[in-house]
Structure formats: structure tokens, C-alpha cells
Amino acid sequence: MTRSIVSKLTLFVGVLIGLNTALLIGAASVTTESILGHQIRERLKTVAADRQQILARELRSQQSRASRFAGWTRIRALLGDREAGPLASASERPGETPSRFLEVILSHSDDLLAIWIRDVNGREVAAGGPRALIQELEPVSRPAAEGEESGWMAVPPRRIGGGGYAAVFCVEVRSADRRRLGTVFVAPDLAPVMTFLGDPRDLGETGEVLVGWRQGDRILLPIPPRGDPTLTEVPVSAFPALAEAITGSFNARRTIDYQGHDVVVAYRPLGMEFPEWGLIAKLDTEEAYAPVFRLRRLLLVMGGGLLVLGLGASNAIARRFARPIRRLARSAVAVASGDLSARAEVNSADELGEMGAAFNRMTEQLGRSRAELERRIAERTDALARSERALREQTHILQSVVDCLGDGVVVADSSGRFVLFNPAARRILGNAPMAVDPSEWSRKYDVYLPDRSAIYPSEDLPLSRAMRGESVDQVELFIAYPSLEDGTFILVTGRPLVDERGAIAGGVAVFHDTTRRKKSESRLAAQYETTRVLAESESLQQAGPKILEAIGGRLDWDLGVLWRVDRRGDRLRCAAAWSRPDGDFTRFVTIAWGVELARGQHLPGRVWASGEPEWVPDVAQVAEPLRNPAAEALGLHAGFAVPIRLQGDCLGVIGFFSREARPIDPATLAMTASLGSQIGQFLERQQMRGRVRL
């Protein structure tokens, strides 16, 4: 047991020493790296600034020199004589040609490689210097841009044969009246300054200074990189630091260079006169921070030594105080097991005794804290349970309310997934929620325009518009899902679903079935129209077609026939017929006028015989056809007929037929039967008028 306590104390002290050592090493490394990084960036900034000033000063100097050449009277006179004609120039001295004059200028200028002059038509007037060099530099000469008439750099510094560097500066030569006479081209030797710029002195083994100018999406490098002497151009994206310098930025930071190396780079533009130029000074991070790495290794060695010394010292101290620590450890084990009544034995007044007393006080405080914590936990647990029960009850109540609603409620999230689809919605739509894209809703749920002829565009559905943030009120739709028999008319209201941040999270649609109301309105309209026709008509021949059209058109039937009872022949004869304009019922109507039906024959005969209304939902489900062969050829499936009654006597039969199966509608049947009684009263009035006339 003593060895275990000693090991723990030794390990504890070792961990403390290790942590302290690690913190010191880390702090020293970070501080040193920060200081060194700042110094490196400042040094690179200084190098970049010095080289930039040297290069910019040299280029401006050469440009000024070209401007001075253009101002020479001799050159102006030469170009003026050339413009005047081919006669001998008075400005030329005997025995001296224009090219000889330029050669003399070159002989007195050590850093001038070539000079040539062209007139306004681009023809060479005179040239001094190697012809091969002039031919090499001329094809890449850049014309003057707007505002550069006072001088411009036509050819940026570039390598030429023999390992040197040359550039071409141009200046327009003008007469005293500012008339353009020609152009002077000067090619200075830039080898000394370019060599100096590429000299990596003060930049270690990996440092270098690079100059570049942009041409399209490439950066041209007149000074080859130190790591790749054959590299003369790179993509803009491969050299971000140089690209930023070209755009006019200047800074110093760590980045990745064109070779993929981690480097510290300082970059800056060449100057306002050279907007497409940039200059950088860079150094590999590994070399730049090498002192930090060496310091870190030294600190690690020193830290290891301190750790070993600390472990030895802590082991010796632990062995000396093993016994009181063991007693304290036993008490600690008891407390850790949950026995907060355990106390450490305090037999000394030294630090260990104070630690034991402190341990005892800590145990007492832990006991009080645990009791208080358990009390608070119990209170919080009880409150949480009550809140959870209340939330569950509220959720259940809300779900029950939504489920009990007579209106359909559908909620969809922003992706079109249904998150709520109450039973009323299933009943009204005739289908359960389907996991389909919102663009397929109209097709999957058979949603049509109110005229029931065209499919409703899915993107214009109220729920789709609500998901886009629109509020929609009372939009009428027709649902033709197969399970709904005759279909359903609904009125829909849509609202966007907004979260707590005000963002649109979906949409809500509330709708109710208006089919019964529409049918009721249609029945009332048919009843009103029939009453009006009876009031305005003089005879059944005049009123019959209008009555059939009023009832059949309003209630959406395809064909209507009114039969009158012929008392003499005891037969039903057609008195009026009507058909929907968009159907081909001409043949049936023609035949109906000539057909006589006996009592009990077919649907009209059965109604005549029974004196009661009759409805046939589907001819396929009855033993006797409801129509004659001509009607069968038209595909009629459903029909109903009601007697035209007067004081219990059947005066005729009115019937309607449809190509679609129709379930029995008691309200329609009752309404039509009532109209049959009104027609009977109309016939009685007609008979009374006839008797009065007689």
C-alpha cells in the first residue's frame, strides 16, 4: 500500500512538473515564434521595399532618359526632314548619316544597348545597335496607351541573348506645334539592376525576390525563380501573393508558393506608373523558423531533465510522508464510495495535519452540498415531470381538436413533406398523405379546376402558394379521386407556416367540402328556373324543353325527356326532350318522339304504373334496362324519373339520364318530384283555361 501511495504522489508531482514544463515550453515557443515571425516579416518587407524602389527608380530613370532623347533638336529635325521629303537633310553634318549619329550616342552610353527611330507611318528612320537585338525586341513592343504620349515602356524587362536583360522605352517626338513626327525607341541594359534584384543575399538558403507582370491569366517572370531557373511564367491562381501585389495590395504573411511550399512572403506593387507589376520577397517557413525549432528542442531537453529531477524529489518526499497520506487516502476512498461521514485522522500540526483538517471540512461541506443538491434535483425533477405532463396533455388536446374538426387540415414543411393530415382531410380528399413531390400533387390527388375539365396546376395550389409565403383565401377546387364517386368541391384557405425567427418553414391549408352546398344551390336554381318558366309559359309544349334544360343543365345530367299520358291509348308519349349541347343525342331524341311506352315498360313506364319516383344508379346493377336500344348505343348508365301528379293521378313522367353512374340523391329526387307536382298544377290550369274558352 505504501508503494502505491508513493507511486501516486510521484506521478502527481511528475504530472504537475510536466504540465508546467509544457506550458513554459509552449509559451516560450509561441512568444519566440511571434517575435521571430514579426522580425522575418519586417525584414522581408524591408527587402521588398528596397528592391521595389531600386527597380521603380531604374525604370523611371530609363523612361526619363527616353523622354530626353525625344526632346533633342537633332532628332526632331531628322524626323521633320523625313516628313518634308527625300532630299538631303540640312540637319545632317557632312559625312554623318542618321544611324551614325545614333551609334555615336550608343558609344557614349555604357548601359544603352540599342536605339532606333520610326516616323509616323512606322517606317524606320535610323537605328543604332545590334540589328538582331532590335529585331528581337520589336515584335513584342507595346503601342502607347491613352495618356502615355510622354513616354511608356513598350517592352518589359526580359532576358535576351547572352544572359542579359533589356527593356524598350518609347517616347513620341512632336514638333513645336505639338504635331506628332515619330517615335524614339530606347533599349537600355537592365542586367545590373535585374541581377541585383534576383540576388538572394540576406534571404538565406531558400529566400528569393521575384518580379512579375500580368498578361491575361498568366504572370510573366523576367527573373527566373531560384528553385526553377527555367520557369518564365505561371498561372495567376498558382501565385496568389504575386497576384495580390499586381492588384495594388501590399502585406506580409504566410502562404503557399508556386512550388507548393509553405513560405513567408512580403509583397507590394511596383508603383502607380507600372499598374500591372508586382514584387515579392519570400523565405521558406522551415528555414525562417529554424531558430524556433532549435529553441523548442533545447527546451524539451531541459524539461525532460526537470521532470526526472522532480520525480526523484517527489518520490523521496512521498516515502517520508507515506503513513499520514495513507490514512488520508483511506478516508478519501470512503468519501469517494459515498460515505461523507468519514473523517481523516489529524495527529500533527504540520502541513499534513492542516490538509487533514481541510479534508474533513471539505467532507462536511460536500455532505451539506450533496443534501442541498439532492433537494434541488428532486424539485427540478418534479417540476420537469409536471411540465412534461402538461405539454403531453396540451399536445393530446390539440391533436384531438384537429382530429375532430370537420374541416380538413394539411400542414407541409418547406420541402413539401406532410407533417399533419387530419382525418377530415383524408375523408374529403379521398386519400391518405402520399410522399410525392409538390409538383405531382394535382396529378396524384386528381385536383381539377371548378369546371372539372382541366387539371389544376400544382404550383398554383393554395398549399403550394402558402409554402412560398402567400396568403390565399377561399379558392375553389374539384377533387375527382376515384374513391369519391361523383367527386367533391372544396373551398381552400392557405397560410404560410412561419418559425420563431420569421422564416417560412412550410404552409398550412384548411378546407371544407362544399359539394352539398353547391348541389343545394343548383337544386334551388333549377327549382326557381322551373317555377319561372311555368309562370311565363302558355303551354306544356312551350314550357317542356325549358323545364328539362333548367333541371338537367343545373343538375349536370346529359339527357332529359318529358312524357305525357295519352288516356285514349293508355300510353306514354314524348312531349318534350332536351340534351346537353356538347353531346350527340340527336338520334335518341328523334326516336323518343316516336316511341310509345306501356304502363310498367322501362323506367318511365314503371314510374307511371307505381306513381312513385324511381332512381337507377347504374344500369349494370339492375335486371331490366332503363332505356331502349338507341339509348344503350349512347352509353347511358344512370337515370331517374318522377311522376307528374295532380290529386293522386299521374299525368305524365319526367326523367333524366347520364352517361356516368350516379348514386341515389334523395334531395334531388324529392325536389324533382315537387316540380312534377307543380307541372301537374300547370297542366290543370291549362285545362281550366281551355274549358273557359269553350
Instruction: Using the alpha-carbon principal axes, give the shape.
Output: flat
Q: Total number of helical segments?
A: 19
Question: What structural class do helix, strand and pairing data support?
Answer: alpha+beta
List unreliable stretches of 5+ residues. 87-91
How many strands appear in the DSSP assignment? 23
Give helix % range.
40-55%
Distance from N terminus to C terminus (CA atoms, Å) equals: 140 Å
Please summarize the sheet with the most strands. 6 strands, antiparallel
Mean pLDDT: 80
Q: For the CA atoms, what is the radius of gyration?
A: 54 Å
What can you tell me about this protein's structure?
- The structure is a single chain.
- This protein is an alpha+beta fold and 694 residues long.
- Helices cover 47% and strands 23% of the residues.
- Strand 18 (559-566) and strand 19 (571-579) form a beta hairpin.
- The longest helix has 70 residues, at 2-71.
